[in-house]
Amino acid sequence: MTRVEIDYPKRTLFTCTAAVRISDLSAAMHLGFDSLVCIVNDASAQFFRHIGLPRERLGGFGPIYADLAVVYRSEAYHGDELTIDVAAEVGTPKRLDLVFRVARKESGREVALARIGVLFFDYREKKVVPIPEEIRKRVGGEATSGKDGR
User: Fold this and answer.
1) What is the CATH number of domain 14-139?
2) What confidence tens digit (pLDDT) does each residue in 60-103 have?
3) Mean pLDDT of the chain
4) How far is it, in rounded angstroms, from Cα 21 to Cα 45?
5) How many Å apart are CA 6 and CA 98, to the nearest integer?
6) Cα dist. 45→77, 91, 142 in Å?
7) On the chain, which terminus has fewer CB atoms closer than 10 Å, C or N?
8) Is the distance from CB of 43 to CB of 6 less than 8 angstroms?
9) 102, 112 Cβ separation under 8 angstroms
């Protein structure tokens, strides 16, 4: 079986917290996978707002969350406070990866790592465009060469 591997970058750009709510629990009474995705999505919105670019106007283009990978490490339970660290990597001229490290605040135990691939879409031209310079500057990244330019 192929396993997803996510390496958290050296530089954290933003940290936020979230509490595990009773509605976040799975049938096994721990944080459900679907709720973890919602927590990561909220952290991404907080990150973009933190760097001064609300998601609804990222460099004048619409962000598209092209893919998501999650590696679950341990359980979290109702009432746990989670710390979510956010990093960013510019993978190609058109792809920004947001990387998340979710941990239980009290113990520091890692709950999950996640990576979201973000593309930027010009809705007038109906095409994916390079990462807006305004965003590239704020995350401090240079593109590496990619096979498909995305």
Assistant:
1) 3.10.129.10
2) 688 899 999 999 999 999 999 999 999 999 989 999 999 999 99
3) 89
4) 19
5) 11
6) 24, 20, 22
7) N
8) no
9) yes
Cβ neighbour number for residue 123 with a 10 Å cutoff: 8
Q: For residue 100, which amino acid is it?
A: F
Q: Which amino acid is at 42?
A: D
Predicted model pTM: 0.89
Domain chopping of the chain, boundaries: 14-139
CA distances from 129 to 17, 40, 133 (A): 32, 24, 11
The amino acid at 24: D
Q: What share of the chain is helix, strand, coil (3-state, %, to 5)?
A: 25, 40, 40
The answer to whether 53 touches 98, Cβ cutoff 8 Å, is no
Q: How far apart are CA 35 and CA 26, in angstroms?
A: 9
Cα-flanking dihedrals φ and ψ of residue 55, to 5°?
-55, -30
Compute CA 133 distance to the chain's CA centroid, rounded to the nearest angstrom: 19
